[in-house]
């Protein structure tokens, strides 16, 4: 379970250099015409150089040469056999974006006539070194772009990927521990879905009786029982329901009381299950072997809080995402007592929303919800080898929390623009989300999956194919 995090500073500097160069080549003469000469069919098209020498999808590339003309609509650039988007052309410069999948790296320029027929062609012997990078893409789900209403622009269909409509809500994502090809999607008050990676289908799952209402999360015990966690507003009512894997999660084997619960997360080593309670601000501890259940095992500093939980794979600590107060707490585990100790603030300021990267109380969040731990191979040998990735729902992005407590935006909000939307591509330059509510690490396929609720899609963050 690992993900490499790279420093892209070098590529940023090249991009800045290219942009500055673009400012010069895009200047105009006093009469308003672009500098440069039209294409001369009597002369060859020459590519003499290019910068930068390497990069990935979306890299700004500047070609130097001669006889490119001055009309970008009549210039075609291919890199590695893939057509690049041409932005600006002067007779001795072409400014373009590197296309996706330009692995071969050969650069070619073709001059076209008004009908798109080839007039002249040029290439350069040196190859662009294409670097693959992490990208946001769409795994499953689709909407009708002609319908602007987020609640009406999709159909709920069971079927193969590409013909299964959209997902209504995605409040929590969890893999079946006994079948890593089955991803369960909590639909809240809507339809719960099952993503089958082996068959590449999207299905549905329903629960009856007390378990059939609004659900906070779906979770699993360490031995593979499915837990349905209801948001119950009364004492003395069942709120967590356990279903057997032998029945394909249709036979309920037990239920326990829970009020205002948004968690049922097992300790990965000892197996006890940690719950939460909204009104009291409690973190509860349930032992599925003995049946002992202490609802107020841990007291949070406040009540009336929506607590979601993620436990470190080693079991050493857990993070508590307090969604409605925009903070994340941490509680360390006492292996002798087999329980967690008093929580303390890790990041954010209580009841203060915003979008600020940094450390501790300087960080600003806006409804952090689900998070997951991902091993970072750059931390190998350190005390904690995992980064924590979490969705910041109202900020429409995915953020990271390092073992040293540093929070930063990882994906979404391209170029600092926090507008919600839908777009695949570069993590920070192109990708957009629309109220992402859930996230999970797919260990088998080594990628992050994001429940992008109001886009009705599961998004994928992975190294470019």
Note the overall shape. Answer: elongated
DSSP E strands, number: 38
Radius of gyration: 26 Å
- Would you state the CATH class of the largest domain? Mainly Beta
What's the short story on this structure?
The protein is mainly beta. It is 4% helix and 43% strand.
Comma- or semicolon-separated keywords:
single chain, 465 residues, mainly beta, Immunoglobulin-like, Neuraminidase, 2 domains, 5-stranded antiparallel β-sheet, 1 helix, 38 strands, 43% strand, elongated
3D architecture notes:
This protein has 465 residues and is mainly beta. The chain has 2 domains: 9-130, Immunoglobulins (Immunoglobulin-like); 134-463, TolB, C-terminal domain (Neuraminidase), CATH 2.120.10. The chain has 1 helix and 38 strands. The protein has one helix at 9-25; strands at residues 46-51, 54-55, 60-66, 75-79, 82-83, 85-90, 93-97, 107-112, 118-124, 129-130, 134-140, 159-160, 172-176, 179-186, 192-196, 201-205, 215-220, 226-230, 238-243, 252-257, 264-266, 273-277, 282-286, 293-299, 307-311, 317-322, 327-334, 339-340, 344-347, 358-359, 368-375, 386-392, 397-401, 406-412, 425-426, 436-442, 447-452, 457-463. It has a 5-stranded antiparallel β-sheet, with no helix packed on it. The two termini are 18 Å apart. The model is unreliable at 4-34 (pLDDT under 50). Residues 46-115 form the IPT/TIG domain. It comes from Bacteroides caecimuris. Pfam families: TIG (PF01833). InterPro entries: 6-blade_b-propeller_TolB-like, Ig-like_fold, Ig_E-set, IPT_dom.
Summarize the SSE layout with pairings.
Elements: H1 9-25, E1 46-51, E2 54-55, E3 60-66, E4 75-79, E5 82-83, E6 85-90, E7 93-97, E8 107-112, E9 118-124, E10 129-130, E11 134-140, E12 159-160, E13 172-176, E14 179-186, E15 192-196, E16 201-205, E17 215-220, E18 226-230, E19 238-243, E20 252-257, E21 264-266, E22 273-277, E23 282-286, E24 293-299, E25 307-311, E26 317-322, E27 327-334, E28 339-340, E29 344-347, E30 358-359, E31 368-375, E32 386-392, E33 397-401, E34 406-412, E35 425-426, E36 436-442, E37 447-452, E38 457-463
Parallel strand pairs: 2-10
Antiparallel strand pairs: 1-3, 3-7, 4-5, 4-8, 6-7, 8-9, 11-35, 11-38, 12-16, 13-14, 14-15, 15-16, 17-18, 18-19, 19-20, 21-22, 22-23, 23-24, 25-26, 26-27, 27-28, 27-29, 30-34, 31-32, 32-33, 33-34, 36-37, 37-38
């Amino acid at each position: 379970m690992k993900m490499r995090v790279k420093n892209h500073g070098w590529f940023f500097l090249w991009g800045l250099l290219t942009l500055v160069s673009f400012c010069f080549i895009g200047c105009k003469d006093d009469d308003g015409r672009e500098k440069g000469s039209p294409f001369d069919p009597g002369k060859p098209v020459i590519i003499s150089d290019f910068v930068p020498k390497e990069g990935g999808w979306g890299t700004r590339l500047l070609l130097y040469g001669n006889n490119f003309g001055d009309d970008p609509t009549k210039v075609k650039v291919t890199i590695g056999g893939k057509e690049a988007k041409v932005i600006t052309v002067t007779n001795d410069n072409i400014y373009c974006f590197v296309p996706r999948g330009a692995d071969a790296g050969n650069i070619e320029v073709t001059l076209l006539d008004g009908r798109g027929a080839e007039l002249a062609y040029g290439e350069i012997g040196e190859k662009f070194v294409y670097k693959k990078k992490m990208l946001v893409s769409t795994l499953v789900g689709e909407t009708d772009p002609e319908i602007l209403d987020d609640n009406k622009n999709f159909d709920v269909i069971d079927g193969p990927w590409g013909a299964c409509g959209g997902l209504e809500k995605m409040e929590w994502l969890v893999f079946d521990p006994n079948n890593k090809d089955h991803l369960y999607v909590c639909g809240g008050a809507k339809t719960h879905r099952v993503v089958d990676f082996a068959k590449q289908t999207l299905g549905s799952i329903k629960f009856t009786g007390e378990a059939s209402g609004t659900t906070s999360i779906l979770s699993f015990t360490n031995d593979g029982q499915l837990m349905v966690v209801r948001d119950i507003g009364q004492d003395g009512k069942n709120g967590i329901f356990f279903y057997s894997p032998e029945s394909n999660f249709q036979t309920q084997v037990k239920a326990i009381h829970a009020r205002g619960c948004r968690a049922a997360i097992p300790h990965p080593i000892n197996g006890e299950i940690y719950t939460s309670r909204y009104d009291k601000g409690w973190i509860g501890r349930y032992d599925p072997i003995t049946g002992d259940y202490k609802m107020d095992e841990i007291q949070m500093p406040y009540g009336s809080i929506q607590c979601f939980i993620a436990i470190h794979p080693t079991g050493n600590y857990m993070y508590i995402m307090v969604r409605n107060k925009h903070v994340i707490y941490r509680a360390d585990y006492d292996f002798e007592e087999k329980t967690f100790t008093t929580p303390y603030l890790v990041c954010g300021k209580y009841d203060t929303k915003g979008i600020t990267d940094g450390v501790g109380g300087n960080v600003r969040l806006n409804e952090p919800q689900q998070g997951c731990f991902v091993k970072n191979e750059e931390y190998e040998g350190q005390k904690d080898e995992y980064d924590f990735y979490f969705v910041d729902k109202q900020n429409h992005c995915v953020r990271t929390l390092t073992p040293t407590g540093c929070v930063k935006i990882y994906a979404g909000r391209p170029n600092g623009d926090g507008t919600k939307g839908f777009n695949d591509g570069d993590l920070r330059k192109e990708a957009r989300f629309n109220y992402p509510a859930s996230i999970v690490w797919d260990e088998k396929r080594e990628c992050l999956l994001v429940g992008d609720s109001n886009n009705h899609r599961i998004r994928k963050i992975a190294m470019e194919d």
